[in-house]
From TrEMBL:
Database matches in InterPro entries: DUF3500
Domain of life: Bacteria
Protein name stated in the entry: DUF3500 domain-containing protein
The organism of origin for this protein: Cryptosporangium aurantiacum
Pfam family, one: DUF3500
Length: 346
């Protein structure tokens, strides 16, 4: 048998070696980028602490205990006692340094989402209605544990309708749990209209609108639900798996669901979020989607997305008094049931 070789093409073994080398290089580059992102958060945190007086440092720093980690809420300050330093008690330079911590930890979109939510609280205060200590600068920063390049520590930033928990452990990072809310959900200020949770809303309607009749029947919850279940004070709890399985989805439907999930993963800085996005894509067939409410946009809804590594809940507020508002008032939560506050990070 005549045998031929092609030096330009190389053997199968050569191709495998090249593929392995490429994969290893990509993994190494990703790890380097993640480490750099974590280092940036540490640098920004230390720079913020350097702007504070001894008394302020005492107020802003605390032990990383379960009780301290859980001291966050969607409620305004009149209804919930927070700890740390509130932004309106800081100088302009200190405020800028605090915000640089968020800029380092979050993506551009994540940081914009934070400022959109806090600005909404100022709009709510200026609306002239009931005031429960609302305000765009009525948000608190707290640091639990000792910031370091190796130990585990957490930066908390929150107030009414916002609770960001950034946990660091070496080069790893998580935002779980983080509560995102908005009231008003859409507002116009200085001629610009802002809708902080727009993608989380419109992309959910895109998913439910793409379901066929059988899938929709599986997705719709049979019991009325109008509020998130795993919000503040619910650490350590989980939800039974409900809804339609994404394993029944077409490729186009999976693309829509992944686009929705991305809205919840990508507030974390790009370098750290990349691994979570890849993990969500790999686990898409083990993911479920649940819905309650009408399926046309503009109506109040509740939805839930559950995957092996995360739980997402979103609810328009349909109660009475402060819990009213419908589509103008949103509560939502992102959790990693086995990794809230970095439980699995080493």
């Amino acid at each position: 048998m005549l045998a031929t070789t092609c030096a330009a093409c190389g053997s199968d073994d050569d191709s495998a070696d090249t593929s392995s080398a490429t994969s290893a290089a990509a993994t190494s580059a990703s790890a380097t980028a993640s480490a750099a992102a974590a280092a940036a958060v540490l640098t920004a945190t230390n720079a913020f602490l350097a702007t504070l007086s001894t008394a302020q440092k005492t107020s802003v720093q605390g032990e990383r205990t379960a009780a301290n980690l859980a001291q966050w809420s969607n409620l305004p300050d009149q209804l919930f006692k927070r700890a740390g330093l509130r932004m309106d008690a800081l100088s302009a330079a200190q405020q800028a340094a605090a915000l640089k911590v968020l800029r380092a930890a979050l993506s551009d979109e994540g940081y914009t989402q934070v400022t959109g939510i806090t600005t909404a609280d100022g709009v709510l205060k200026d609306s002239g209605g009931m005031d429960l200590d609302f305000g765009a600068d009525h948000y608190w920063i707290r640091i639990l544990g000792t910031p370091s390049a190796s130990g585990k520590w957490t930066v908390q930033y929150g107030g009414h309708h916002l609770a960001v928990n950034v946990t660091m452990a070496g080069s790893e990072m998580t935002l779980a749990p983080t509560l995102w809310g908005a009231q008003p959900a859409s507002y116009t200020k200085s001629g610009a209209t802002t809708e902080p949770l727009s993608g989380e809303t419109t992309k959910a309607f895109a998913v439910v609108g793409a379901l066929d009749a059988t899938q929709l029947k599986s997705a719709v919850l049979t019991t009325s639900i109008t509020e998130i279940v795993l919000g503040a004070g619910q650490d350590g709890k989980t939800l039974a798996t409900t809804g339609v399985k994404a394993s029944t989805f077409t490729d186009a439907q999976k693309t829509l669901l992944l686009a929705l999930i991305d809205e919840w993963l990508t507030p974390l800085n790009d370098e750290q979020a990349a691994a979570k996005v890849a993990e969500a894509k790999a686990n898409i067939d083990q993911t479920t989607f649940s819905w309650y409410g009408k399926t046309t946009i503009g109506n109040p809804i509740y939805y839930r997305v559950q995957g092996p590594t995360f739980t997402i809940e979103f609810a328009h507020q349909q109660g009475q008094g402060a819990n009213a508002g419908g589509v103008t008032h949103i509560h939502s939560i992102y959790r990693e049931p086995d990794n809230d506050y970095g439980a699995e990070l080493s």
